[in-house]
Structures are given as C-alpha cells and as structure tokens.
C-alpha cells in the first residue's frame, strides 16, 4: 500500500509491503527498512526496524490523524492512502463559488449523508459511493448549502455524472 504521511507540514511518501506474518518492507521517500511489527496491547506496538527495537504508543486522534510517542518524543502525524489524497485534491483544491459535485468514478450510490436544503461544512461527507467493493466518501469542498441532490441511493452512476450542486454560504 502507498501512503502519504504529513509531519510538520512536509509530505513523505511511504510504501508498505507485507513480507511475512508481522514482517514488512517499508520504503520512506526511497529509503527501505525491514520492520518486524507486533501489537503489545491497545495502542502500544513493538517495532524492530533494521535490528533496532522500539516501543511506540500510537493514538488515533482524528480522521487520518495520529499522536505518536516514541522514546519520550511526541509527534503529530497525518497518514492518508495516496489514492484518497489525490482524489481529495482533485475534488476540492481551491474550491470557491457554486460547486458541481461529480462522480470521480463509476459506481453505486451507497448512502446519502445530506439532502437538498441541508447545510454542509467544508470537508463534510455528502454521500458514499461504492466502487469495486470500496466505500468512497464524497466530501464537500466548501461550506454551503445543498441546492440540488441528483444522486439517488442504490442507483448506479458513471464517472463524471453530476451528484449534487452546492452554493457557498453568503457572509
């Protein structure tokens, strides 16, 4: 799996491949590590990285946000699947004004989270699109109001199909 980890405002590409039970090959910005990973208890993990042992406390503090304690040092890290990050950037980068939310891929409308007339905050889930047995959250790129909901639960949509219209909040 490919991920993007954000630490102190910097993005780092991370690739993780399982090489055996509890064993992983991890590539961080091109540098490769052999990792032996074991869950000691909830949120506490034992890692052996290139023959060095570490005990790590990892707490999920928000969506894709983690608090990591390693050797008395604290780190706040955001880790996102690389495909999800690219999709989010494609759907919402620099959005302003009236928004036409279109399906990024063919799939089925699994669940509507918002309806016509509902207020939404930036980043709030509008609907869930199921494609290739994966649930994809379609989020609002702006704070606004759903002025039209074309998506219907249970219906199939093609890539590029209009899902809904959003008008921005007027200040």
Topology readout:
Blueprint lengths: L1 E6 L2 E11 L2 E6 L2 E11 L2 E6 L2 E11 L2 E6 L2 E9 H11 L6 E4 L4 E6 L6 E2 L4 E7 L2 E6 L4 E6 L6 E2 L4 E7 L3
Antiparallel strand pairs: 1-2, 1-8, 2-3, 3-4, 4-5, 5-6, 6-7, 7-8, 9-16, 10-12, 10-15, 11-14, 12-13, 14-16
Helix content: under 10%
CATH topology of the largest domain: Glycoprotein, Type 4 Pilin
Query: What's the story with the biggest beta sheet?
Result: 8 strands, antiparallel, barrel
**Spans of 5+ residues with little confidence (pLDDT < 50)?**
none
Query: What oligomeric assembly is this protein in?
Result: single chain
Major sheet: order of its strands?
1-2-3-4-5-6-7-8
Alpha plus pi helix count = 1
Radius of gyration: 20 Å
pLDDT averaged over residues? 88
CATH class of the largest domain: Alpha Beta
Query: Quick one: overall form?
Result: elongated
> What is the number of domains?
2
Strand content: over 45%
Element-level helix/strand string: EEEEEEEEHEEEEEEEE
Derived structural class: mainly beta
Distance from N terminus to C terminus (CA atoms, Å) equals: 42 Å
């Amino acid at each position: 799996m490919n991920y993007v980890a954000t630490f102190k405002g910097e993005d780092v590409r991370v690739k993780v491949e399982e090489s055996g039970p509890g064993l992983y090959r991890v590539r961080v910005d091109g540098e490769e590590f052999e990792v032996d990973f074991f869950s000691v208890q909830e949120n506490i993990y034992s890692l052996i990285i290139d023959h060095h042992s570490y005990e790590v406390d990892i707490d999920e503090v928000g969506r894709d946000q983690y608090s990591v304690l390693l050797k008395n040092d604290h780190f706040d890290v955001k880790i996102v699947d690389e495909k999800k990050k690219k999709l989010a950037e494609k759907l919402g980068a620099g959005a302003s004004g009236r928004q036409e939310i279109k399906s990024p891929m063919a799939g089925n409308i699994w669940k509507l989270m918002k309806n016509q007339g509902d207020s939404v905050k930036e980043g709030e889930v509008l609907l869930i699109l199921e494609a290739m047995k994966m649930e994809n959250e379609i989020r609002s790129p702006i704070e606004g109001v759903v002025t039209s909901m074309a998506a219907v639960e249970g219906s199939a949509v093609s890539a590029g199909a209009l899902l809904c219209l959003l008008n921005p909040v007027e200040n």
